[in-house]
Amino acid sequence: MRDGKAWGIILNHQHNLEQGSSLKYTTVFFDLDGTLIESGPGIFALVRAVLRDMGLPDRPDADMPAMIGPPLYDGFRDVLKIPDERMDEALTLYREKSRTVGVGLIKPYPGVPELLRALREEGVFTGVVTSKITPAAREHLGRLGLAPHLDYVRGGVPGGSAEKLTILRGALEDVRPDFARTVMVGDRHFDLLAAREAGIASIGVTYGYGSAAEIASCAPTHTVAGVAELGELLLGSIFPILKRKE
Q1: Is 41 within 8 Å of 70 (Cβ atoms)?
Q2: Which end of the chain, C or N, has fewer beta carbons within 10 A?
Q3: Partners of residue 107 on adjacent β-strands
């Protein structure tokens, strides 16, 4: 069952669609880390604090980008090699420290606030779909001033699924957009493959934490190298200002 706020979002979205927008995409879902926000420095500091407190060896810098994108449990298991018997300890420490450690190192990518604002002004429904748990995602978006420019946020839930496809399908069920005019924007294969499986278009961004080869291997509908190019793809000539901001 959806609450009143969720129904309000859906009704507002349907109203926007009825206005006959000329834009190709009228619903845009964004990944969070590596797409809207440059969270790597903060996440890397947080991960290292967890390893230190657990008495586990540090990991080389080259391993750290792989922590951004997958569900946290998978990153701890596959990237950091934390044993199963200590996984609950690691997850608890991470979530406890996430409010203080590395927070000041996380920033929106240049041009992202302007892009989100412009999309909203054009009646585009904007949402975040992330494997980060929903309260943490909302906290970051609020602190960074991005929340007012977004219609919807859906993330994982503690103890529930953090798989991107499951979360994206839940968002599509909530919002009920026109699939032909809906797109998922992300920097990792988790985002792009989820979009394909869910039956919507995708935009791979190469400025985040996935390599150009990773993005290309997913054959996204579109690929962009920067926020300005993303703005031009989504808004066309409406959004030239970002070229001067990057």
Answers
A1: no
A2: N
A3: 38
From CA 144, how far away is CA 93, in angstroms rounded?
23
Q: 72, 111 in Cβ contact below 8 A?
A: no
Q: Which of 31, 33, 151, 191 is catalytic?
A: 31
pLDDT cut 90: percent of the chain above it: 66
Domains of the chain: residue spans and CATH = 4-39+106-244 (3.40.50.1000), 40-105 (1.10.150.240)
Q: Which two tokens stand for residue 56?
A: 């586990």
Q: Whole-prediction pTM value?
A: 0.84
Tokens of 1: 């069952």
**Paired tokens of 159:** 């103890």
Closest CA to 136 of 78, 95, 92: 95
Confirm whether 31 is a catalytic residue: yes
Averaged pLDDT for residues 59-85: 87
Q: What are the tokens at 241?
A: 């200002």
C-alpha–C-alpha distance, residues 150 and 116, integer Å: 7
Give the type of residue at 110: P
Measured at the CA of 182, the angle between CA 177 and CA 186, to 5 degrees, comes to 130
Counting residues of the chain whose pLDDT is more than 70, the rounded percentage is: 86
Alpha-carbon gap, residue 76 to 67, rounded angstroms: 8
> What token pair was written down for 211?
């390599």
pLDDT in tens, 6-46: 545 554 555 555 456 789 999 999 999 999 999 989 999 99
